[in-house]
Structures are given as C-alpha cells and as structure tokens.
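step 4 of 6: structure.
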Amino acid sequence: MRGFLIVGNKAVTKPFSLKDLAGSAGRMDIICRCIAQALFISHGIRRDVEVYVLLLGEPDPPKALKIVGSEVRYMAPDERNIGGIIRKALSLKVDYSWKRSTPGVYIARKNLIDLLEELSKKYNVVYLREDGVDIRDVACRLENPLFVLGDHIGLREEDEKTVMKYAKIVVSVSKLSLQADQCIVIVHYELDRC
Amino acid sequence: MRGFLIVGNKAVTKPFSLKDLAGSAGRMDIICRCIAQALFISHGIRRDVEVYVLLLGEPDPPKALKIVGSEVRYMAPDERNIGGIIRKALSLKVDYSWKRSTPGVYIARKNLIDLLEELSKKYNVVYLREDGVDIRDVACRLENPLFVLGDHIGLREEDEKTVMKYAKIVVSVSKLSLQADQCIVIVHYELDRC
C-alpha cells in the first residue's frame, strides 16, 4: 500500500463554489490535484493507494477525508469533478468515525494527531520536506509508506513537530521547491521503478 | 530551454464553457494540467520553458497555442484559470503568424507540420512514448529538447509518422501508462537532477 496525507491549511470545511476552488474554497484546487495525482494513471486508478486530506480552513475545522483507491468509482481526474466529490462529503454531518459519502470517499472529525495515531498503525510515516534524504536513495526500501505533505503553505510549525513524532524518515523529492501534486507524481515514479 | 508540444486531439477550437473543461471542451482539462505542470513550480514559473499546444477539435481546427514562460503573467496553476486564458486566446481571429492574446500567450493557425518545421529549428524533437529508451539513461544528454506528447488518446497514426520524421529520439518515462501531465512532471524531475 501507498498512502498520502495532505494538509490543507486553508481548505474550507463546508460546501464551496466549484467556480472558485483556488480562492474562496481555500486553495481546494491544490487538494483536488493532489488527490488526482495520487490516484490516477492513464485510463485507470491505482487500487493500492489511499489518500487522506486534513482540512483546516473555516468554518468548522478540523475535518478529514479518506479516499480509498480500491473502492473509488465515478471519479475523473479534473479539478472540478474531484471538487464536487469533496463538496458532497462536506455536506455530511461528521463525527469521529469515518462516514461514507460516495464510493471510496469518507469523512470524519479528526485532527492531525488522530490521523497519525490511526495511520501509523498500518503505515510507516514519511515526511516530505526539501531538506530530507534523496528519495532516489531510499525509495525501494520504503514499505507501506504514508507520505505527509503540506499545501502551498507547507506545514505549520506545531503540525511539523507532530508529524516528526511519527515520522520514520524525512525525504526530499527535489532541490527545487515543487508543488505538492508534483511531489506526489515523483514519489509514485520513484516507487514504480523499484 | 525546454519545450513541450501537446496534441489535443479533441480540444475545441472556439471559446468554451469553463464549467465543462473535461466534457464539451474536448478534454481541455488535460491541456490545462499539461500547461500548469510544464510551467509552474511552487510559488513560481519556470522561465526557461515554452509550451505549445495543438488543438485539433471542432469547429475550426487546427489552431496552435504558444505559452512562453519568460513572458507569462497573471497565470495561476488551477485548471479554471488556465482554461480562461485559453478561452480568451480562442476568441481571437487567427492567421498563420503568432498573435498575442495575453502576456506570454499566443495563438495561430498552424498544423502539426507547421509547428514541427518551426520548432525543429530551435529545439531537438523528443517523442515521448512508452516503448522509448528510459529517460533516466538520456536525460542529461538532451540539449534544448522539445518533448512531444499526446492527450488521453495519444497521437493518431498519421501524426505519429509526422513526429517521427522530426524526432531525434523516442523516450519513455514509465512502464506504466501515465497521464500526459504526469509525464511532464517526470521529464522536469529528471532534467532538474542533471
């Protein structure tokens, strides 16, 4: 299994306009692209992938999404389609256990610690940061990795401290500062080559 | 310089609805993602990149777009923003020379041969196809490469023959069949490491 956990610092926690994913929805466009790049290949979905998203924007944070590649149906890789799926999940009343919204898509009231407690039982947490070890040197040794990465803002200092308590390793995918979804493509690429 | 030429087999050649990039606009979502991944890094644009797009959809094909990284302003990486920029270019009356639409964005009436004749003077044409040589073995030897790739359909047989007349090399980025924009991310990644 491969897992990804994306932290959306501003991503809103109520239904939003699909016309303004990058604005009033709190850079939900980034979240949509991350989900697409984690799940899709050409004409297919990676069934061995799970994507988790932590939504920290107003008005009702935190909320978490879980997208299970092996269960997903009726999803297309464009931002608007994935945005619509997230919006639908955000229309549900949440509690602390995962609630199914559409096939393969779940939502719950969870914060970063909740998520890492749950996920570190089945995954080895890998923190993606520019100053980490070169992914090329370690990709083929990563078993059941969960890659944690931030949106355009990165991770807040307190969240980074939390992640570092769970992370087995800090890994870098480029000396350039890349967009989160680009990091995901590169992670898949290096792991696919193993 | 790095160039990319993306062939949009169904991408429409008139202004389209931003609500339906993936449908009635002829998979314009793929074109938008390719442009974004070719140009953007985190909080910046790659100034040494040019992107060319061949639009072959109805009602008025062929049309070609040129996007010059060193000149681009007011562009964001989300599909809707780039879709709006393409739509604006498609509202212009075109002829055989490049006409500027917005900063760094040009449009003209050109077919695949026109484009390759023009671009092969300044670039070495590289055709991206799954059965090519491994990009990792050749990335650092590619000078001024222009990477040619198709959308979800790939290249039509006759277009592939045309490209092969100009291509110096056929290169593969993965044994998996990836999406066009994912191929672009990987190309940049391998070239950035050189």
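step 5 of 6: annotate
 - The longest helix of chain A spans residues 180-192.
 - The CA atoms of residues 113 and 127 of chain A lie 14 Å apart.
step 6 of 6: archive
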